[in-house]
Structure formats: structure tokens, C-alpha cells
Amino acid sequence: MIKTVILDLDDTLYDEIDYCRSGLAAVAEYLAALHRSPAADTLFQALWRQFAAGNRTKTFNAALTELGVTHDDRLIGELILHYRNHIPKITLPPDSRHVLAQLAEKYTLALLSDGFLPAQRLKVRALGIEHYFKTIVFTEELGREFWKPSSAGFEKILQTLDTAPEAATYVADNEAKDFIAPNDLGMTTIQLIRPNRIHALPPEGPETSRQQSQRTKPDHRIHRITDLPGILDGL
After folding, report:
1. Which CATH number fits domain 4-15+91-233: 1.20.1290.10, 3.60.20.10, 3.40.50.300, 3.40.50.1000?
2. Low-confidence ranges of the chain (pLDDT < 50)
3. Which pTM value belongs to this model?
């Protein structure tokens, strides 16, 4: 019987792309205030073109090169910090809020999320979801080496809530990393596939062994968060 439901944050409770859009807009405003920079809207459009085209690691460099804006590693570092520390303009979707309220009446809820600590805390605050969870673990607090697929965050939650793995389930989106540890621990795993999710492709390739592939697979898949209560009731 499931007693504890652990939820991921990004692309599980809301669309992470909304956070990315918010961050790029904040960076554009910051850049626009600098001497001889283009207007914020022009900067944002260039940043968004790079991001939407799949450039997720050199977005700032490529956009500034496209616009002919001189930049160096120091400026790029400033932009990265501004992105991670901006106050995000994101909201919790109504269906997520309804489901969280519904689940909180029946289960003990916990939140487990990877990501840079200031950004993750600011996301939770902007979404207004702290009160739903008995405990929240940001794996960055444990050390970057304990980001998923490490089991450390899951073990911390299970210990804090005094919950056996078989009485817990993890709900997340990214098949590449999210389900390895909870599967190994003996938890039930549920993948929520949101239409606008960023990490859309499962791990693949000839180097992926059958055993490794099985470790990454969730026990259940759903496409709407409103399907989650019914799945949990059946476990």
C-alpha cells in the first residue's frame, strides 16, 4: 500500500519551458541595461531562437554572436548567475494544484528535485507549493554528486518520513535519470509525460544494455497529472 508520494518539480508539476522563458526574458532585460546593448525584446528574441533550436548549452554565446554583441567569459558568467537567481514568473497549473490538494488529504507528500539551489528554491516559492509537502529535498544541498540518478535524495526522504521503499512512489518526467534510483530501491515509479516537456527522448543507443534500460523505465506512464490519483489508488 502506498503511503508516501514523492514528486519531481520541473516538467512534472509545471512546464519547465515556462521557467526557461522567464529566465531568458530576465537576462534580456539585464543585458538591455548595459551600455550599447540592443533592446530587451531584440535580445530576448535572439535568446529564444537559440533555445528553441535546441542550443541549451551555449545559448547566450550564440545569441550575442548573432546580434554582434561583444562578450567574454566574464559577461557570460554574469548572465548565467542572473538567469539562475532571477525571480521566476511562473505559475502552478490549476490541474497540478487540484491534484496536490487531493493527494495531500490521503498521502504524505515529499518533493525531490535536482538543479542549482537558488533557482530551485525560487521556483518552489514562485509556485507557492511548500505547504503541500512534509519534506523537500533539493539534491544540490547534499552535493552535486548526489543529483539523480544518485539514490541519496530518495534515501534521505525515506529516512526522514520513516517510510519503507515499497510504501513509496516517485512521480517524475525524465526517463534518462529519474527512475534508476527509485527502481533500484524497490519503489513504484510513475512517469508523467507532459506535452511541452523539455526532456522528451528516453536513453538509447547500442551502448545501452538491456539491464540498464530496464533500470531507467518507470512502472507506469501517464500523460495528465489528473490521472495520478487513479493510478495511486490502484497500487
Report:
1. 3.40.50.1000
2. 203-209
3. 0.91
